[in-house]
Amino acid sequence: MSITSKSVSGQVPKSAFAIGYLTLVVLVFGDALFAQEYLYLTPSWLAWYGAAAIALAGSAYFFFKADWRRVFRQIPIELSLLIALMLGSVLWSNYPSQTISSFLIQAGVVMAALFFIAVFSWRQIFNLFANTIRGIIFAALGYELLLSILSLMAQASVLGVDENLFQSIRNIGQVPDGRTIDDLLLRNSFMGSWALMGLITFLIEFAIEKRHKYLTVVSILLAIVTIVLSGSAGIVFATVAVGLAGLVSLLAEGKDRDTRHRYYRIAWAISGTAGFVVLIFRRVVFEFLGKSPDMTHRTYIWKSVFNLVSERPVEGWGFTGVWVPGVEPFSGLIVINGIEYFQAHNSYLEIALQLGAVGLVLFLILLTRTFIKTWRLGVHHSHVLYLWPLLLFVTQLIRGITESRLLVQSAMFMVIIFAIKSYDPEEMLEKNSKKPKLEAMRKRPMTKMKRR
Description:
By secondary structure, this protein is an all-alpha fold. The protein has one domain. It has helices spanning 14-34, 43-65, 68-74, 77-88, 96-119, 122-156, 163-170, 181-185, 189-208, 213-230, 233-252, 257-280, 282-288, 298-309, 347-380, 387-402, 409-421, 437-443, 446-450; strands spanning 335-336, 339-340. A two-stranded antiparallel sheet has the order 1-2. Strand 1 and strand 2 (339-340) form a beta hairpin. Helix 6 (122-156) packs antiparallel against helix 7. It is globular. Residues 175-179 and 446-452 have low confidence and may be disordered.
């Protein structure tokens, strides 16, 4: 029996959902692992390889049992060309073996995204993300709480807990540069970005779900706590951008074309003015956010990478996704205060480095068309659910200004889903009442909002 997601009520086996959750977990932990090292044979990597193999096999199985031909027909040509360029760059790559291994990983990401597109409806994808992100945030904060309790117990020598036990638990999963799990969980943009996506998801969940409101409210609060603890300036800017996009999309819905476009012009003017003000007064802005005016050495990193791009401006140095330690030209390229950096800290500069001007143009076309499609979906459909792909996509676009992950792993996974699934026909979407979202939410009885 074939699997189909032609309607929002299509039956999907529980085993497919299990593979879906496993796939998201593999992608999240892959983000964390690749941010620190590249394809090692440590226990954490071996566990990841095994889980990734199961997720990939399951994704392929369910994809080809679904309406895979329809999905192939919906793939934008620029996405196909971009993926082909990643593989083709092996012909001129400065590191051909790493290009091949990186492309195989990217092919796995593509397969996983195609599986989600073919098998699940938008609501099912939304629920998969909501529950996974909730688990990530709860686990991260729970681990931090455990460490805090153990630290207090060690200081007071309670129940035999001493400093050695505390440090042994804290050092679980220590990476080669000396950082520990709690350093990676909350104190960087990695968790901040997932928390922001969680905040978006949980707010929409609160608007569309009639049950389990208390769990959603708790999730919203914990997502905010995680964003604050991450201390990431990039996430602050992404939050502002997402808020503006959400507000404009809600105000524009149901309006005539001229009114919508007037709102859009105002929004772009506000965004441009705000960006100019931040640029001019960046020292004051970043000091207020507790960051250095050069955005934690990013301006130096960007200059170094741009110099490298200028050596191969058209074709690039070859696809590698994340930089591979010990490989030229990345090895020793950026060393700050004795720490070696292995990313351009800008997704758009990163793709220019790896795939040249050709790859950058294809990538920008893909992002532009996907933004337009998700915007139209979010504005023209009355269901609040369809704001979710738009707002998550905006999050990734803004995050790409200060991080290089938009081209690989979970971010690329989301880009592919949004780029292809936004072409789903009307009959595959939830019922469109044509009533604007703001009007529908205002008229919704409070008894229903409170009912579990």
